[in-house]
Sequence to fold (278 residues):
Amino acid sequence: MPLYMDIHKLPEGTSPDDIAQAHFADLRIQGKYDVEYVKYWPNHDCGKLFCLVHAPDAESAQDVHREAHGLTAEKIIEVPPELAESFLGGGEVNQVGAATLPDGQNRDLDPGIRTVLFTDIVGSTSATQRLGDEAAMIWLRAHDDIVRAALSAFGGREVKHTGDGIMASFASAASAIKCATRIQSDLAKKQNEGEGEALKVRIGAAAGEPVDHQNDLFGRTVQFAARLCAHAMAEQIVVSNVVAELCIGKGITFEELGEIALKGFDQPVRAHAVPWTL
Fold:
């Protein structure tokens, strides 16, 4: 059965209990429409609620809301199941159906914001031509091993391999930054140990809600992170202003880059670099 995400605007003053009661009302009648609401992400900071639901079609999901409590969704989009799990985690929910952060702490509600991170191997094409396919694959596997170890250490989920890098998702912006610095320091350490040809990457990260204005799951956030990665220099980590703001109070240092021009973005965007050392 197709998987959908619906997006509600939370009325001012809506409490967690109000949301839970609406969710329970959905569960009571969802069988009538062959619908199954899986979990929800309340984000009071941005005034939105995201619900994940299996349904024959979007209108059936809307019918459940309409009959259960009248709080219909502003927007409903179809979600590829593999993306839902990669970006939004597995089935972690608390006793009232709200998604929780993937650390087992049910008191920590998942706000639905994700930080998307890209790595990109610098000079991968020229390295393949210079080293040959077999040696270049060893080079690539070294990158993959280091990145995946860092993702495992900091709770990142690999979304896909891009050929010369990896795209990942994090529930925590601070964890994404710590992962990025671990990747750069581990690669530099490998280079200092003289293990093969120098392997350098650029890293970019951006944070956003599960959907964007074009009804594309993580569309703008993904594009933003990819462009920031492309803008970064070798061994540099460049992040969006939202990522930096989400890390306030987390003891992470940023270097202001000002506004930078990115391909595909009409206006310059504010960005930051993340300093790191071995």
